[in-house]
Hints:
The chain is 33% helix and 25% strand. It is built from 16 helices and 23 strands. The strands form 5 sheets. The protein has an 8-stranded antiparallel sheet, sandwiched between helices. Strands 3-4-5-6-8-7 form a 6-stranded mixed sheet. A 5-stranded mixed sheet has the order 13-14-15-19-18. A hairpin with an 8-residue loop joins strand 16 and strand 17 (423-424). The longest helix has 25 residues, at 573-597. The radius of gyration is 29 Å and the shape is globular. Mean pLDDT is 89; it is low at 1-40.
Amino acid sequence: MSSVASKAHPLFSSLPHFLTWRTLGFRTICSGRLGFAISDTDPPVAGTKVLDSFKEEFEIGSRLITLETGKIARFANGAVVLGMDETKVLSTVTSSKGDAVRDFLPLTVDYQEKQFAQGVIPNTFMRREGAPKERELLCGRIIDRPIRPLFPAGFYHEVQVMASVLSSDGKQDPDVMAANATSTALMLSDIPWGGPIGVIRIGRICGQFVVNPTMDELSLSDLNLVYACTKDKTLMIDVQAREISEKDLEAGLRLAHPEAVKYLEPQIRLAAKAGKHKKEYKLSMISDRTLENVSNLAEASIEAVFTDPSYGKFERGEALDKITQEVKKTLEEECDEESLQVLPKAVDTVRKKVVRKRIITEGFRVDGRRLDQVRPIYCEAGNLPILHGSSLFSRGDTQVLCTVTLGAPGDAQRLESLVGPPTKRFMLHYSFPPFSINEVGKRMGLNRREVGHGTLAEKALLAVLPPEDDFPYTVRLNSEVMASDGSTSMATVCGGSMALLDAGIPLREHVAGVSVGLVSEIDPSTGEIKDYRIVTDILGLEDHLGDMDFKIAGTRKGVTAIQLDIKPAGIPLDIICESLEHALKGRLQILDHMDREISAPRTQDDRNSPRIATLKYSNDTLRRLIGPLGALKRKIEEETD
Length: 641
């Protein structure tokens, strides 16, 4: 070894003594550094364990997709590496042991993009990744939203999903890949879950739909649709579009469903080969006797509260709390410990039954509105005249204050993500302070809900912003929720559109948003929906007690953004498509109110907003303008800011 090592690169002077020249096959790394790898032709070292890995390959949208398990993260309850082209994503799932003593599902989804996936060292002081970025939180929500409804009722054990991008060629967005990998990992695990699911991305270029588009294709597309489903029902929709009509959007959804279903069979086959037997977990369910007992004590009183339209949000809440305390007192006198342990959940179940029954049978809602009626609207633009742009938007008890700040092109946000553009010139920051719901709370860092709501509104408004060549400013829009009783993200879209016009930004169209809900009646024998009602502009209580929160934003011409979240294990696509028309009717009503307040961009002559001027210089004059080593240029910047 010594005679060979004396001629070797200095790097190998520190190699362990047991490495021999025979077992090393050398190669040159593209950066010019020297590396080594075990030769494929050499026999395996004695005692080497051969890993039992299982793989499924299939094709969707001309992309070859692989699912592999057994090679990486073998101790995880379920672990899968999904590959598409040269991009690979690892997803793992684990679950807590023992009995759960809670009344909710503590599901945590962590998605991470580390820079090593593209051979880059992070550009930070510590040269390592820090807190989760906005994009990582959003990708985590893409995974969370479709898998959450499929956990069985009463399953309250802690579940953690961790998705990591192992390598990225920059061609594919790994978010959809991570969602499909997570579905497969859950199928392989012993955790009870009602999957599998398929998640697909659909684009549209020159009027033609594209399945699994690349990032380059998405830059040319007027639609970015992410769709998740089971074999026959929709679970989640996320859309960014450039005013796509409801008819064209429905065509995209109906194409997405069969394409997403193609992910299901490979997952089932892989689970059959390498999956674990599903473990029996204790489910926290309310017994029929307890539910009947609580219903007899509380249903009449709850119905009286919900049929009285004079109650406001907090008055209604106080009356319902009083009913709960009265039921608790009665149960304590009867020494009914079983009912006392699940009392809050049992009362909530009775509330749900009362509200849903009234909506389906009578067509009336908690606040007395008809099913398609939008709450009273108040609009005010320019309410803070010293700012570059401002607005106040109220719909019922929901109220948001939006402000616009204009900046120079250099103020654009720099992004450090594996895919997508390097900078962002339009930023929408949504804030949900605890006083908006009359609660005490701490202000923390990035909040998943705030990031998700803000990004939804940002997508909705981005479609109508003028091109950068025509309007080179950087724009920051702040949405401060002043009061919340449902659909604050859609109120942000409305208030943001008015504030942008107040700032003098030439939007193509006003954008408004409305949230559509669903109340359904399930056939207990088949589990299918036998009757349902679509509800426009839902309250916070209707969101909690209903089946669907379908947020749809757009202009008079078409849809610009969508976010669908559901509670049951899927909703038929026909109902989703029917909801688009209900949302359009509500959106047009809101746009009429907004147009009456402000319908065109205001001039900024009397405001302190920044100005961008373009001057042309000859080469000789330009040298004199800049000055020696840029001294005059820096002086101008200091004096004019």
